[in-house]
Amino acid sequence: MVAPATLRVVRCGGSTLHGARAVFSADSKQVGPCPEPVFLWSDTFQLVSVKLTKAAGQDLEAKELSVVLHGVGASPKSIAFGREGEYVASVKDLNLQVYFFKQKQLNRFSLSAVKTKGGNNHFTCVACHPTEDCIATGHADGKIRLWRNFYHKKEYTFSTLHWHHDTVMDLAFSIEGTSLLSGGVESVLVLWHNGSDCRKDFLPRLGSPIEYISMSSDGALCCTLHTDNRITIINSNLRFSKCIQGLIKTMDVKTGLVVDPRTKALVLNGEPGHLQFYCLQSDQQLFSLDIVQRQYIHQAGLKQTDLVKVAFSAQGKWLATVEERDEVTDPELQLKLWFYDEETQSFKLNTRINMPHEDHVTDMCFRDMDELEDDSLILVTAGRDCVFKVWVMVEDTDPEGKYAQQSVSWNCDFVGSYHNYQATNCCFSEDGSVLAVSFEETVTVWDSVTWDLKCTFCHPPGKIRNICFGRLTCSKYLIGATDHGFLCCWNLLSCALEWSAHLNILVLQPDPLSEYIAAVSWLSKESSLFVFKPNEPRPIYIQRNLCKEKIQLAAFIPRDEPETVGSEKYLWLRRSQLFFLTDTQELMTLSTKSLEERLTPSSKQLAVEESLPVTPFSLLLGKHRCQQSQQDIDLGKRVVQNKHEQDSPAVKELLHTPAHVLPSASFLCPIFINSLLISKENKSAEVAADEVEMESEKAEDESDEERDITEMEQEDTSPMELLGEMTCKLSKSQEKELRKIRKTDYSWISAF
After folding, report:
1. Tens-place pLDDT, residues 421-470
2. 480 with 457: CB under 8 angstroms?
3. Which segments carry the WD repeats (predicted)?
4. Which residue, 79, 112, 113, 400, shows the most beta carbons closer than 10 Å to its own?
């Protein structure tokens, strides 16, 4: 019997991986000689055979379970089915196990990699040849071993392929079995021809380590999944085809969640040494900015420069970044100031400052004063060297220096400290008049003009973890959270504690467009959300058990248009939307709308072209379209255009939605066809209008004939007038016929 545990399902023949229940689709089929059982492995590291019964429903409940293998790996890469499902191979640690199915009988055979010579022989992945009795295994030392003749316990053989310098993360045979694909931390896809170490091809610079490799059923395409949450589609000739990239997954988000004021994109760590600008509406990366500007070397244990702090000015014209590399003696630090260039639509490096602090930089912020940003922009950095520094812009006084083409640069203007305590956090008030800097257990408030210390706040025990100012009507309050589980609110006018609450707050995030502040607590292995105003000690909104993961970061993203909310407790979501990032790097948000309501305007949300910078090709294409539309107007073609040739929502959604998130064609086809149909009501109205027009024309023709007869009877037909020069006048009926001829389109003659 199988011990009760969550189950992950995989069908023999390379089927998909299901969720955490022993319930499978009714169309589950196995490729091979044993069509009845479905194989799955449990969290107790057992490979299990499940016998499915025939039923009319879509879901079946598995009742008969039998254990096939013990001690299998927890990853799907540790199990592979052999030729037509005749055997199954499993790897874990130093063991390779091969089991054969013959007439529903199981024969057990195991190999130990301890017998091999040299290197780290731990197995990492396994793949089976589709047509031959051959098993390929990947190892932690970068070697690939091809096992043959494993039907015999002592006469087995294996050959070795070696190119990877580190762990082989996945293997996959081609559909015909003529080649083998391998990938690892080098971000290079290796194609081995016919199992030969001499014949191999490479596809380098794929961006991040390759975690999974999969082949399409027809063998035309190969798909690689990378550790940074990227999917790369590659042609069979090892040519890059397409990349599907959403939010880049990194080892650690040290920069926090920052909002770009210009694009409203979420900015955080991306590729090593890069900043990613991630559009939440389209679920796509807008662009990536190389901050470190050094080649990243994928090698375990190697200390490399990393991006740790990011801050934007209020208008998004200036960007400040801090990069560091940990050394045994002294860390290497660099503070960089970037200016946004409107011509190139990108950030350019303006100032580089080596070692802005003697120890790690703990926090950084700009003074948010929109009206004075260009004149008195201030940057403050806090460090573990027990000081905070104020950086200001100055005019470049060295026209022949290295930065002769730059008009401004950044210099240190003031250095502040408090009792030799480490500076941990810093932030400006909404009007920029005061600066708050936390030094371990104490919060200090400084005048941003004279840099005089105005007052201090303290709430022992515990060091200050987060601080922020209130906004709008609550701008006189200062909020702080300690690592001993206290949330405090101080009044800046009375210099006294307004209120405090016993909460273990990990994240404290104010909304830039309202008075609301979001606080996330962690207690009893669950995260809870509290939304409050500083002038009201009672929370406005409480969400217990928000998620089981620990929420590390949060950010308010301004909405394009205020959202209509039906309840007062959701008013804090009207102008901004709150996003969370957990310790497992899952990005979550809160919404008052249901899933169906949020998916309805997908064409509007996924229109990435509106937010991306204009390219020269798009400008040329737009100019061509304008010229074509002008020609259509001149030729009068718009008169005969179909009235229903307007912007259809179905067509917009089909064209603007990325291909990887589109539903099936069978679902889209009826919607598209229905959008092109003409309703009976519109058609009958048009027919009636045509009939009325024909009747009016007929009546007008009869009246014109009567007038012509009357005019002919009243005409003076003297010979002198007939012989003289006269201007010929057309009747109304003739003018009408002439107008009809003028409206006729003769542009087709130009083709001849």
Report:
1. 999 999 999 999 999 999 999 999 999 999 999 999 998 788 999 999 99
2. yes
3. 116-147, 161-192
4. 79
